[in-house]
Amino acid sequence: MKKTFEELQQIGKNKLDRIGLRIGLEAKTESQKQIMVCGGTGCHSSSSHILIDNLKKELKAKGLENKVDVIQTGCFGLCQKGPIVIIYPEGTFYAHVMPDDFKDIVEQHVMGGKIVDRLVLDEIKDNPNDGLNQLEFYKKQNRNALYNCGLVDPEEIDEYLALDGYKALHKVLTEMSQDDVCNEILNSGLRGRGGAGFPTGRKWMFAKAAQADKKYVLCNADEGDPGAFMDRSVLEGDPHVIIEAMAIAAYAIGADEGYVYVRAEYPIAVKRLVLAIQQAEDYGLLGDNIMGTGFNFKLNVRLGAGAFVCGEETALLNSVEGKRGEPRPRPPFPANAGAFGKPTVLNNVETYANIPKIIREGAEWFAKIGTEDTSGTKVFAVGGKIVNTGLVEVPMGITLREIIFEIGGGIPNNKKFKAAQTGGPSGGCIPEQNLDTPIDFGSLASVGSMMGSGGLIVLDEDNCMVDVARFFMDFIVDESCGKCSPCRIGTKRMLEILEKICDGKGEEGDIEKLEELASAIKSASLCALGQTAANPVLSTIRYFRDEYEAHIKEQRCPAGVCKNLMQYKIDKEKCTGCSLCARKCPVDAIVGEVRSPFEIDQKECIKCGQCELVCKFDAISRA
Amino acid sequence: MDDFVSIDNLTPLKEIIAKHKGAPGCAMPILQEAQEVYGYLPIELQKTIAEELGVSLSEIFGIVTFYTQFTLVRKGKYRVGICLGTACYVRGAQNIVDRFCRELNVEVGGTTPDMKFTVDATRCLGACGLAPVMMINEDVYGALTPDMAPDIIAKY
User: Chain B residues with CB inside 8 Å of A306's CB?
Assistant: First the structure.
């Protein structure tokens, strides 16, 4: 049933009466508690949906179903400690909550008013309430794009309305001209969060200026960069913000139709997005004559089919058109000839997630956050060898050291930091000496990496930099679409050289050959995939040339990763002869008598590393 | 063995085509839905799609072979997808892939002779907090070590 703006306001207000206690307001309904359970992919994999069912059943059994709401919400970011539960109004932060913990939460916490101690993280044992502000993980964060993630039920449009949802769309439709909107976004300094960092307002202006009978607005949710999952989390945790932002963009450029191109590998995100679009259509926030203003906007969803190159904008356009996802030469740029040959604005999910708030709070508010080069905040997906794996949103200008060692909690198992990989297969590795560089688009490029979409993988002393370069090149070879030969053939040749080096068969001159190929591929490739394909290799050569040389000149892998160049060995002094490793070995390569030192038969050993993992006496090492 | 429709029965395919035909860029959704129904996209199905849409078979074949999601051959009942994204890789996912291949005696991308398991190394599943991570159909397993493989396989 279509609603007027006034009716929508009333729906939001009524909802706020119930959920306001999540943001420190007084409850004006019988609901006295709100149990928020993370329903993002990470926590969902750990059965948070079963926990939700259990909590609801138990509350019903106790007759509390109207007094306590159980809400499936979006990602809190601290995936490592999931499933996460926060209980409002006190803000108690529970971690690693399993489906069986429902009884304690209901009986002890809700009914008894006592904290369930075993579910509280050590760091906040003394003060388990208000966990979002107490944990080191959150102290330096500034959640803008992720504001609603963890705060609202993403499957419930009324909650989005309660927290100022769709007010920005109403504002642009009733108070602002198309140029006003473009200027506001330009003045905010917002740059594209998908990786290229192009000023969003400028992009919109180009598309607005293009003359055509039809224009499109597209959202790039084909998050293919391995290790990045912020776009997935926004779609899962706050799908309406994307719908609102795309409608604003459509108004600004004069479009009436849009597509969200989303990875098929993200089933939860797709489901919630489709549901959100239906809800928005029901309320008349999508479709014809939106909020009675005469503005029309129709939004469609297109699923990707597993092709990394489709994250490149012109390849994505081909894919939306139902063709092979091969890039097109630019110009013409999408702003003039994009989807189906019509002027098109294409932005990334996280870029859109910033739009409604910029419209509501004003360009100056956003421009004040961050650095001169890049205003606002950026979401990073932090993973790899780090204590707090997860999603963090920080103001630009923060240093990598703060993200890794303060927010991220440092490297596990007392290992030594080696490098931070940013920007995925198009980015580079940043060594220790550059950790204090304030992060923005410009500074990361100047140290030989790039922001990319915000994947940040931490590597420690156990990771081999040549192997990492080989890993990314393998990825690129697999994902190169094959249209242009520098990328198709050149990356394959680079991979062959890297494989040779990892096998201990590298030769003098290989490093130089890699550099020469890299520069040819960079200057001659058609699209960004090829132009940036060599970055991981170049940055590892730049900072870790000694590792390449150890492989080539000494046939030695300093980190003990490359299988042809390493062996597992048992330290006879430390081995107690417990036989655990021998029992776990999948190929029976470990032999010996119980209670005397064991030995590894190197001819049989497949170097799977299982023995090292299970040894309780630290007797197995790589050499 | 599984619930897919036989490719001899073209009725569901024709319904899918009729639903999307005429919409701009309809080939992709048709192929995606057809694969959901039939489990794979052999040349016979592609021919029908090409004929019904009035485009050449080579155009449809070009799309099918471009995207990794589409498959020309039948896959096993259980699709073991081990994440080889960066976060999983640096935490030892390659050893997990090796172990599953070894336990099931298949190469990466291969299917066991009884059509029960297909092992794939997949792109990032976006569950980096649980690395190394894998999926078997819809079930997710995280924080893997190689020796968990036999027990996981035994569940299916």
Answer: 67-69, 123
